[in-house]
Design a protein that fits this description.
Elements: E1 6-12, E2 17-18, E3 25-30, E4 42-44, H1 45-50, H2 77-86, H3 98-116, E5 120-125, E6 134-140, E7 142-146, E8 149-153, E9 166-168, E10 187-189, E11 196-210, E12 216-230, E13 242-249, E14 254-257, H4 263-301
Parallel strand pairs: 11-13, 11-14
Antiparallel strand pairs: 1-2, 1-6, 3-4, 3-5, 6-13, 7-8, 9-10, 11-12
């Protein structure tokens, strides 16, 4: 899926939402072979998402009735959308405003070019979430919240089919302790029918790791199950195509304490091993000795043919 189409959203059950996240997130355009090309740009999401946006530099752009005491001007399509969201108005209505029409055309042109060349996108960075159940996802189109409904505007892509095949190089909740294994690191999903919604369900377990030096690391482990929902034939956008991670926190906490055996414990184990060796050797010697004696007795009696 091209970088020009991808957006990252984070939300949780407490009602906190971060739509089109653009802080501490970076995108890298990839060629059809999956490698960064020298002429493809790499930059922060926030910087790239605004590149080419139609902004009114001079004067004060109209907010089309969505002005507030703190927001008098809307000089870009993003500002106009934010103004509509603050008023809880239908954000999709801004598509008809000239400043947003130009922005949509720009997105369409970028997407057509990258989609025709079968580009991919590498995303890395980190986001902060509250310790309540929620989800974060990578999906095309700007995200909007209308009441309790969350949806993505796929209109600029006009029925395009999106390939959600993906590789997860690393996914972690918090810092890692020595020897930690995350189940999704290195996961590769090359889908036969790639247009649909790939869902991961994560159970996050808070963990405290204490080293032999007494240093503590407060982090999380997680387990995962996954499911793919394919778009039906002839309906390429029946479900939002993308990769979704739904997470929930366990009420349990794992307390791991690293320890080392004392020298006395080592000596005890060594003596136990030596005692076992001598016991087995004695048993083998006894079997050989008694077998030899029985064989010799039969030979003396002439019973051995």
């Amino acid at each position: 899926m091209p970088c020009s189409a991808l957006n990252i959203d984070v939300m949780d059950l407490s009602g906190e939402q971060h739509l089109d996240v653009n802080h501490d997130i970076f995108k890298q355009r990839l060629s059809n072979e999956g490698t960064p090309a020298a002429d493809l740009e790499k930059g922060k999401v926030g910087e790239k998402s605004e590149k080419g946006a139609i902004v009114m530099v001079d004067g004060c752009g109209s907010c089309y009735g969505a002005e507030t005491k703190t927001r008098k001007c809307c000089n870009s399509c993003r500002e106009l959308e934010d103004a509509y969201k603050d008023k809880r108005w239908n954000v999709r209505e801004v598509r008809e405003v000239p400043i947003c029409v130009n922005n949509i055309h720009r997105i369409e042109d970028e997407f057509k070019k990258q989609h025709s060349e079968k580009e991919g996108c590498n995303i890395h960075g980190h986001v902060e979430t509250s310790k309540v159940a929620g989800n974060f996802h990578f999906a095309p189109g700007r995200a909007y919240q209308q009441g309790s409904m969350h949806f993505h505007d796929l209109a600029p892509f006009k029925g395009a089919k999106f390939n959600v095949s993906h590789t997860i190089h690393k996914l972690a909740f918090g810092v890692e302790y020595p020897g930690q294994v995350n189940p999704l690191d290195g996961a590769v999903h090359q889908l036969e029918h790639p247009n649909g919604m790939y869902q991961y369900y994560l159970k996050v377990v808070p963990t405290i790791y204490t080293s032999t030096k007494g240093e503590q690391v407060r982090t999380n482990q997680f387990s995962v199950t996954e499911h793919f929902k394919e778009n039906p034939p002839g309906q390429p956008q029946a479900v939002v195509p993308g990769v979704f991670f739904f997470y929930d926190f366990s009420p349990l906490l794992v307390d791991m304490v690293e320890g080392s055996a004392s020298f006395l414990h080592f000596i005890t184990n060594l003596l136990a091993i030596l005692g076992g060796v001598f016991t087995v050797a004695g048993m083998v010697d006894g079997v050989v000795y008694h077998g030899q004696k029985a064989l010799q007795k039969k030979m003396e009696l002439g019973k051995l043919s």
